[in-house]
User: Fold this.
Amino acid sequence: MALATRSSFRTLKAIRGAHSFCKHATSSGSSSDRVSSLWDEHRLTADQLHFRALATDFAKKELLPNGAQWDCDKYFPVEVLRKAAGLGFGGMFCAEDVGGSRLNRVDGAVIFEALAYGDVIFVAFPMFLSICSLIFSNSVVCRYGNDQQRNHWLPKLIQMEFFSSYCLTEPSSGSDAASLQTTARQAHGSSDYILNGSKAFISGGSVSDLYLVMARTGALGPKGISCFLLEKGMPGLSFGRPEDKLGWRSQPTTSVVMEEVRVPSANMLGREGQGFAIAMAGLDGGRINIASCSCGGAQFCLDTAQEYASTRKQFGKAITEFQSTQFKLADMQTALHASRLMVSNAAAALDAGSPKASACAAMAKRFATDACFNIANDALQLHGGYGYLKDYPVERYLRDLRVHTILEGTNEIMRVVLFRHMLQQP
Assistant:
């Protein structure tokens, strides 16, 4: 795909290549751009302002008008995902030689928030599907894959010609991921591996073309785990029924079952025994991503609640004239602003290679996902009975935001991660 010219700013790479031309963000005219810029415009670079404008415009045109119907129909919007990939959103953190945009994590956080404003689930598929998660997949292959793997898979994944899924969680191993039971034994007289086991809650199950599977090749514990690339259609690879979920209903989620699946040794990602490190390597970025998505969804809920409260009249006046409503909206804004700052700090720490990056990511994920779900809940409450109806979008955002406190490590595990870092401090 040909890149846009510097004057058009139609792709991420075109924006990155035109820094000297980017003095002010182009307003998309959307409420998200208007509201967010009041609070954080001063801390964003010229490029980041343009990234946000591009993402906001896409969200306004493609996501806001369609999210409710996708949710109702459980429709996975492949064609819209590929439009997003055409703008550069499919490979934000990947190297340019394979078609990526080579952005940093702070850039990504700005973009994810703007996209999630339009539809939380579109950008927040948990692992290896859609934009936010596919970027994690791309980054893993970029970092650990050999040249053959990178050149074969990444261009297709970045353009979302192919989709990929991340397979770590199992029915009996969730938070205790290192106890996984899926096995990979070397075939007799061959360098191939034979995989057996099952994975649970896999985003993109049955839809994705590529599955990154963590399997045990050695002893118990994290050092006995390796990572394999399984291709859809391999004999013995099958999928369970689609899960019927509270939220994220436009995203297919199934179990992934492996029964004597023969995998070439060339499909091992990294070295034998490196799988758990690969699995964990993307989690810091994934936690920042999901927290960014929470901020975008919460911003939508706050804007919607403020607009509704300013027009809803009770006892002869708009309910925004009641001090209790003013206090509630002010507290929602404060919690959102604090969440956004924590996410930005964590992203900057990860970009800088700080030894505290994992702790910052855990704090940001824990705080932002809890706070932003509460903002959505308060927005629904401000709508009264109308907020409980599907005619109003807040209930859908609340359902989609709820799972963010579970994804990428539960918020209880985030506290464990943080406390372990605290014990390491001198």
Remarks:
- The first strand starts at residue 164 and ends at 167.
- Residues 158 and 264 are 24 Å apart (CA to CA).
